[in-house]
Model the fold of this input.
Amino acid sequence: MRFVRKKLVQLIFVLLAVTFLSFLMLNLLPGDTAVVVCGISCDEAGLQQTRTDLGLDKPIPVRYVEWLKNTATGDMGISARNKQPVSEAIRERMPVTIELLIYSQFIALVVAIPFALIAAQRAGGIFDRSSTTIAFGLLSVPSFVIALVFILVFAVNLGWFPAVGYVKFTDNPAENIHDLFLPALTLAVAEMAVYLRLFRTDLISTLQEDYITMAKAKGISSRRVLIRHAVRPSSFSLVTVAGLNFGRLIGGTLIVEVIFALNGLGRYLYDGISGRDYIPVQGAVLVVAVGYVLINFAVDMFYAVIDPRIRHARAIA
Amino acid sequence: MPAPSPEFPSSGQAPGSDYFPSGDFLESPNMATEITGMVNADMAVADSLHTLDPDQVAHAAIKKRLGWGFWVASTWVAIVALSALFAPVLPIQNPNKLTSCTKCFPDSYHWFGTDSLGRDIFSRVIWGGRVSLTVGIIAILFGLVVGGLIGLVAGFFGGRPESVLMWGMDVLLAFPALVLTLALITFTQGRSVGFIPLGNSIWMISLAIGIVSIPPVARLVRASTLVFSHREFVLASRTLGAGNSRILRKEILPNVMLPVLSFAIIGVAVAITAEGALAFLGLSVAPPTATWGSMINEGRNSLETEAFISMIPATILFLTVLGLNLAGDRVREFLDVKEGGL
Done:
């Protein structure tokens, strides 16, 4: 419990700092903040409205507290371009991004785990060496390059998947899964390389433990030893990294959403940036950062739950 | 049965191979280790039943070399770097000159063809390398200096400074890297500090990527500083009357530099990818300046018919990133030898 309390205090401090930084972003803008935020087609009334909305005449700490209060109650301001409330837009776009994240993690794990198992079984063998080399190569391909190659091969040449756009999940789940395959695969490529390397290394080191020798000595087949004895203790770091990647991938979804024209959170952020519409950008950054912090916290907690050694070691430290 | 000593696997024996081949034994640098090995011989037999990590086996069996992969990779990176450096004096075409030959396929005059505005892709690739490498190097240098200082201070002094600094790093890490760089570049658009313009100038882009690279450097440096500051040679130096700053400079910094070096090489690759992503989104340096990311983006519209417009810069970007990753990885393994022997 001490571990949980300590982590909770840390969480609150990090959240405060993250929200404060997101809040401060608007102040980085050059010139009169109200003029810039209000946008190009801004009249005198709109300017006045923006001033009162942002409370620019008050000192920064007061504005921060007010802004935090508004944000917590779901009021994140409105977009200067289409007057849509930011919180509403974010709620609309969140599902696609989350679906993309889960989908890509699923693909990555489904590919990486069997490959790692086969590779670890004969470490140093031909399969192990070639899969590790390919994984290393895949890690060096930027996601926007992978996306273009996939579009070129699977959408343009083979015509198996659409290059842009998708059907909503609520309209037609099967079609939706099919349409989102290329974007999810694009995101998954780098992830599967990471997972393959990680899980393989952990498996190999687990296979050197004494209890594995013991199991082998008892005459259990190596396949059974691998699946029944080695997988579970080797999967701790895989679980952690996969969890943490949910947050980290949000940056990656931005590029993928832009390329495949998916109406997600990343695309919302990007549209805000290219349209010089700053309130949505601030809102999207805030949501992403807070989401990331919360996911990290959850993974930390989960990790402590499944591995008591961690819980105690960290509480003492 | 005592556990096999940690030095044992790295003492020149690959478990699974024949024990004590006479040649190896005589050349062994460390008699004591070998004797422990003899005592533990039956332990070693048990060990040989396991499948060992192939990396480990390779380390023990052959003398460490950087390997041909490293040299191929560094040669490629060197070619890219040199041609970028000497781009203004190389006998290549003007990268921004528009010609009537638009979307021409590669031929003897336009080696890599031309883009949709008729500009020579070969020379744009070379000029684009200037942006990528400049951003990559400046960003990582910034990250190394700032992150390194933070890590050194946090690891060496510990206590309050450490918790405050590392908390700051956690906050920075809370923003996904691409989102933070985008935000920094967007919100400083049109602003300048002194005569240095911010926004999408090459300085701000480097700075934004550099800021993102601070936390990982700080964590790495802190971790190794922590290890080294409790070593005997630091104690010896302190006993001889050295102060904190001397110990940091003369004892800790040189030791911490090594692991950081391989990180820096891979970091340049990450920074180049990040700049590519920004340029691809149209948020890196303004056109018509050639960058690899923006060239890939511009070629997107003609992907169906003239894929080479995107794919050539994409290939160059990939090879450069791969080369840097490979070189960094080899350097890391190469430098690992020191720790193993201690």
Q: What stands out?
A: Residues 93-307 of chain A form a domain with the MetI-like fold fold (CATH 1.10.3720.10). Residues 86-121 of chain A form the longest helix (36 residues). Residues 135 and 143 of chain A are 14 Å apart (CA to CA).
